[in-house]
Structures are given as C-alpha cells and as structure tokens.
UniProtKB/TrEMBL annotation, chain A:
Gene Ontology terms, MF aspect: ABC-type transporter activity
Listed GO CC annotations: membrane
Stretches that traverse the bilayer: 23-41, 175-195, 233-254, 274-299, 305-324, 336-355, 361-382
Record organism: Caloramator proteoclasticus DSM 10124
Stated name of the protein: Sodium transport system permease protein
Entry superkingdom: Bacteria
PANTHER family documented for this protein: ABC TRANSPORTER PERMEASE, ABC TRANSPORTER PERMEASE PROTEIN NATB
UniProt keyword annotations, A-Z: Membrane, Transmembrane, Transmembrane helix
Automatic annotation (TrEMBL), chain B:
Secretion signal span: none
Record-linked InterPro entries: AAA+_ATPase, ABC_transporter-like_ATP-bd, ABC_transporter_ATP-binding, P-loop_NTPase
GO molecular function, one term: ATP hydrolysis activity
Residues annotated as domain ABC transporter: 2-233
Sorted UniProt keywords: ATP-binding, Nucleotide-binding, Transport
Record family assignment: Belongs to the ABC transporter superfamily.
Taxonomic source organism: Caloramator proteoclasticus DSM 10124
One matching Pfam family: ABC_tran
Superkingdom in the source lineage: Bacteria
Protein name per its UniProtKB record: Sodium transport system ATP-binding protein
SUPFAM superfamilies, per the entry: P-loop containing nucleoside triphosphate hydrolases
Length: 391, 242
C-alpha cells in the first residue's frame, strides 16, 4: 500500500501540473524567456552586422591611386560613385566615404606622409561596422607599403616587432574565462530561482488549502499532520527544482545559441562539480520550500500568503546580491558559517573546481540545520490550532 | 454511539465551549442549535479530533476521542458548510478517491464505494469531469460523497445548508435523512430552529458555550404549548443574557 504522505505528494503534483498558470509561470516561461530575449537582441545585432560586413558600400573621393586599386581588390568592399558623399553618409545610403589627398601616389613614392580622411556617421552602427572593416584594410595597406620600403633597403620586416605578446591564464586547464562570469551569476541565479520556483506551489498548498475549505476534511482523515506536511513539502520542492532546471536550461540555450558565449570563453566544468552544484540547488529549494510552506500555512488566504512571502523574497535577494561580487579565493572559512552566503561561496568553489572538504562539510551541515529548522517551523505552524483555524 | 462528556474548549480568555455533555444514539439526528458564536463549530471540531479539548472528552463508538484520535477519525464523516472544499483541478472521482485513500481504504474498496455513491447521488454523468466548472449543486453532491466514502458510523454536519439554494439544500437534507435510515448517529448544527424541527429527533440548544436545553422536539413543543419554536429558541437563548 502507498504511504499516506506518498498519496498526498502524488495528488499535489497532479493538481499543480494541471494548473496552467503554475506550469506556464514556473516551467515554460523561465525556459523560453532568456532564449527569446537573447535571441531577439542577438539576432538583430548579428544580422545587421553581417549585412554590412558582406557588402561595405563606401565612396572613394580623390584621384585614381594605388590605394584605390587596393581597396577595390578587397572582395567585400564596394566602391560607389557619388557626388554628395556627406549627404549620402548621413542618409546611410553609403556607410562611409574615404577622402584621399591630392598627389597621393606621388607623395607615397617620395616616402612622404599622405593623408586619408574617413567621413562616417558616429550615430550609425552600420557606419561603425564599416569603419572597422575599412580601418583594417588601411592597416594592411600600410603594412604593405612599409614592407616595400624596408625591402628596398634590404631590411627584414621582423625588425618592426621586437616583442610578441601572448596571453596565457594560469587556470586554463581547470576552467576558462567564462568561469569568472559564472561564479558571479550562477549562485545568484540559483538562490533567486530557489526562492521564486517553489513560491506559487507553496501558496497554493498552504493558504490555498485553507481558503478552499479542504483543510478540515483533510485533518479528519488517517493522514497525520506530519504526513500531510511532508507530502506537500516534497511536492513544492519538486516544483522548485523543475523551475530551477528550466530556468537554467533556458539561460544555457540563450547563451549557447545567441552569443556563442560558452564556446568562446571555453568554460569547462567537471561532472563532479555539476553533481555537487545540483545537490546544492536541491538543498536550496528544500530550504525555501519549507520556509514558504510554513509562512503559507500561517496565512489566512492566498493574498495574505503572497504579502507575507514578499519580504522573504526580498531578504533572499539582498543576501544573494550581497554575495554576487564576493571572491571565493579570499573568503575565510568563517564565512562558510553565514547563511546563504556559504551556499553561494560553495557554488563558486565548485565552479572553479575547488573541493575544500572543510568548507563542504560546514556548508552542508548548516544546510541540513536550515532544512530541519524550516521543517520544524512548518510543523509548528501546522500544529497550532489558532493558526490552522484562523478565520 | 456518541457520548459527549463535559467537553470544554478555551481559546485564551474566551471559553468557546463550556462543559457540554449529551448523547446521540444510532439512527438519531440531534440538532445542535445556537446563535453565531455559540460554540457549535468548536464542539464539532473537537468531536472530529481537529481541536484538542481543554478538558472533557467524547466517546465515539466506545472509542475515546483524546486517547485514540486515529481510530475515532475512521468512524466519522464531516460535512461542514461554507466553502464546499473541493480541488477544482481534480475530477469528482479523483476528489473522492483522494479522501478514500487517505482514510486507509484499499483501492478496490474505494472504487466500489465510489461507484455506489455515483449511482446513489446520480453523479455518473460527470464523475470524471473536473470539479472547477460544476454547479453548486453538483459540487455539493461530490462533497457529500467524499464525506461518506469510508462508511463512517457517525456523521457531523456543521451548518451544511448555509448559502445553498432550495434545491441544493434539499440534496443535503435528503442525504441526512438517508444517513439516519442507515442507522448512523448524526449531529447537525444550525442556527435555524425551522431546519432543526424538520430534520431532528432531538435538539441541544447551546448559548455562549453552554447547554440551555437538551430534549426531544415533541417535548419542547409540549412544554411550550405549541408556541412557535423559533420564538421559544429566542427566549431560551435570550434568558441567559440577563
Ligand atoms: N481558533 C479560535 N481562536 C480563538 N477563538 C475562537 C477560535 N474559534 C472560535 N473561537 C471563538 O469561540 C466562540 C465560538 O465559536 P464557534 O465558531 O464555535 O461558534 P459557532 O456556534 O460555530 O458560530 P457560527 O454560527 O458563527 O458558526 C466564538 O466566540 C469565537 O470567536
Ligand atoms: Mg460555526
């Protein structure tokens, strides 16, 4: 036979999943929100940049020169004939205009300095993109010229670059540059999701039960209050974990496909770290699920529950943001005794692949203490007659 | 069947129920009559083990309320007025099944009882539809089925017809009479003498937590020479104010 809390758990999950609002808010929305947002912005930026880079429409002003030949030999640059280039750049029909000084070639052969003026629109991103392309071309052209002059004198080109700088981070093997960003964002997100994920379910299963009038018949069944509490608590935790998972999945998809973020910075997290971060996220969800359920049982109605829960959210967010910039490398062991901050720090350590047994034990013992305290708090609320039967 | 013995409940300084004793036999409907705040709900909540008595107890089918609340719960069914108390997103069947499961019924037993109740209450047509869009009358039937799915010997009704229209009230009243026929012991609380007169064999009138009258309806009528019982009730609860 099914245990009674199991019956409660199954029923609550079924009930929650049939609530279209809950499913949309805690599963679907987090999943699509970031990809949509990033996708729209990313696509917009990317497509115009690509369009400009594919065909850089510019005007060449001045007499024929070797530079003009060089420019037109670049495949993606298109030189457009124009009379009023100032006006056309302003209108955006051409992206920029290159103005070459008189006697350009002659000065060049005399090894004198020659001017090239670029007229562009500082307010147009298209013009900026074109500017980058053209500057690159000019630099290549300059290099060509310098090379020619040096060769004429029989000097090797390498004389111009006495030092070659290569950047190599010390922690390349462990985690890429993306890890820094992730150590800041992931704990923050995990805490916020653990607060917001279980919220709707907690309100529904606590105060909602009172408001619907289902609590009284429920209390006259064979299920004890602890069994009811645990069934509800686990159902709420599951909703929280689903919320966290879909939020993170959404975030991952967003980064992966819109910005190639993960790929570019070479983020590497070991399976072990991922598992530990997962466990930490589950614990976080349990803590907030229990606290929110207790508050929700205390409240008389949906509305009251929502009112009481907003300070919980705010306090959680403040702590989460407080740990946002905290550097794990300089964190003392003492700091692993601060609620929430310790969880944030331990996640940061896991991301960069640091497994400090002392820190892990302290944090997890505290986490268990929080969970037990939160469950006791919820049980206390549920056992008090004046709370359960408040009208 | 039900024997209430000196039941008392104090909420801080308020004594909501004060040393209340009465008995209910098998197949008997006892009306618990009182004005708002008289202590009806509190009494019924104590009998149904939701609230712990400050002192006193009650024996349900010989089981002591204070010592064996789990066993007592198996014996009682409750139908409390106000919100019907159903899960809108579950079907009628799922609503009833949930409480059957939580009352410790086996799956076969639960299904058998639900089939029987669906037939009896004429709910077959909509038993597998979600409760959310039901009319009040349909919901009332589901609530009734839920209250009795575990075949309790004792039924407690706390103002079950409150806020119901005539036809929904009739469903509930028919159900109460049916429970009587099946030999259940029934307590029915109300603040309307009319309703109590129509349904009950005996009446227990409480005022400010105390019993002011306990006897057969006929006796009450005889005692007051066929006077309008509503007026008698008002006088009984009024007397105590002085
Ligand atoms: N949980 C509680 N905490 C404090 N006082 C309570 C509580 N429940 C009931 N009371 C008080 O006990 C008294 C009896 O209340 P009860 O609800 O039993 O009356 P009732 O007869 O059911 O009234 P009604 O007709 O309004 O339903 C009232 O004075 C009420 O304020
Ligand atoms: Mg009442």
């Amino acid at each position: 036979m099914n245990s009674l809390w199991g019956i409660v758990f199954k029923k609550e999950l079924k009930d929650l999943f049939r609530d279209r609002k809950t499913v949309i808010m805690s599963v679907l929305l987090p999943l699509v929100l970031f990809p949509l947002l990033f996708g729209l912005i990313g696509k917009g930026v990317k497509s115009t940049t690509e369009k400009v880079a594919k065909e850089v429409k510019i005007a060449y002003i001045g007499e024929e020169s070797s530079f003009k030949n060089f420019l037109s030999s670049v495949p993606n640059i298109k030189i457009v004939e124009t009379k009023d280039y100032q006006e056309e750049v302003k209108k955006g029909t051409i992206y920029l205009a290159v103005v070459v000084e008189e006697d350009f070639d002659e000065k060049l052969s005399q090894e004198k300095m020659s001017d090239i003026k670029i007229i562009y629109d500082s307010e147009s991103t298209n013009s900026q993109t074109a500017l980058d392309v053209v500057k690159d071309v000019i630099n290549t052209y300059k290099d060509e010229v310098v090379k020619g002059r040096l060769e004429k004198r029989g000097i090797d080109v390498s004389i111009l670059s006495p030092v070659d700088v290569k950047n190599e981070p010390v922690n390349r093997e462990k985690a890429g540059g993306g890890a820094l960003m992730l150590t800041m964002l992931l704990p923050l997100y995990l805490i916020i999701y653990a607060i917001t994920g279980p919220m709707a379910a907690a309100v529904d299963l606590g105060a909602g039960e009172k408001e619907r009038g289902t609590l009284e018949p429920l209390l006259t069944t064979q299920a004890s209050r602890m069994q009811l509490l645990f069934g509800k608590l686990f159902a709420i935790t599951v909703m929280g974990i689903i919320g966290t998972t879909s939020s993170l999945t959404g975030l991952y998809i967003a980064f992966k496909y819109s910005m190639d973020f993960m790929g570019d910075v070479g983020l590497k997290i070991s399976i072990g770290s991922l598992v530990l971060i997962g466990v930490t996220a589950i614990i976080l969800n349990m803590i907030f699920a229990a606290v929110e359920l207790a508050v929700s049982i205390y409240a008389r109605s949906f509305k009251e529950a929502q009112t009481y829960l907003s300070p919980v959210t705010i306090i959680g967010m403040i702590v989460a943001y407080g740990t946002y910039m905290m550097d794990v490398k300089s964190a003392s062991t003492m700091m692993f005794n601060i609620p929430l901050a310790n969880i944030s720090l331990i996640i940061k350590e896991f991301i960069i692949g640091v497994y400090n047994p002392m820190h892990i034990v302290i944090t997890f013992v505290w986490a268990i203490v929080y969970i037990i305290a939160a469950i006791l708090f919820a049980r206390y609320m549920f056992s008090r007659e004046e709370v359960v039967f408040r009208t | 069947m039900i024997e209430v013995i000196g039941l008392t409940k104090k909420f801080k300084e308020v004594t909501a129920v004060d040393n209340v004793s009465f008995k209910v036999d098998k197949g008997e409907i006892v009306g618990l009559l009182g004005e708002n705040g008289a202590g009806k709900t509190t009494t019924l909540r104590m009998i149904s083990t939701m609230l712990k008595p400050t002192s006193g107890t009650a024996k349900i089918c010989g089981l002591d309320l204070v010592n064996e609340p789990d066993k007592v719960r198996k014996k009682i069914g409750i139908l409390f007025g106000g919100e019907v108390g159903l899960y809108d997103r579950l079907t009628a069947r799922e609503n009833i099944k949930y409480f059957a499961d939580l009352s410790g019924l086996s799956s076969e037993e639960a299904n058998r009882n639900i089939e029987f109740l669906a037939e009896m209450l004429d709910m077959k047509e909509y038993i597998d539809r979600r409760v959310g869009k039901f009319s009040r009358g349909m919901k009332q039937k589901v609530a009734i089925a839920r209250s009795i799915v575990h075949n309790p010997d004792v039924m407690l009704f706390d103002e079950p017809t409150i806020g119901l229209d005539v036809s929904s009230s009739a469903i509930v009243q028919d159900f109460i009479l049916d429970c009587k026929k099946k030999g259940r012991a029934i307590i029915f609380s109300s603040h309307s003498m009319r309703e109590v007169e129509r349904l009950c064999d005996r009446v227990v009138i409480i005022h400010k937590g105390r019993i002011v009258y306990d006897g057969k309806i006929e006796d009450l009528r005889r005692e007051y020479n066929g006077e309008d019982l509503e007026k008698v009730f008002l006088r009984l609860v009024g007397d105590k104010d002085e």
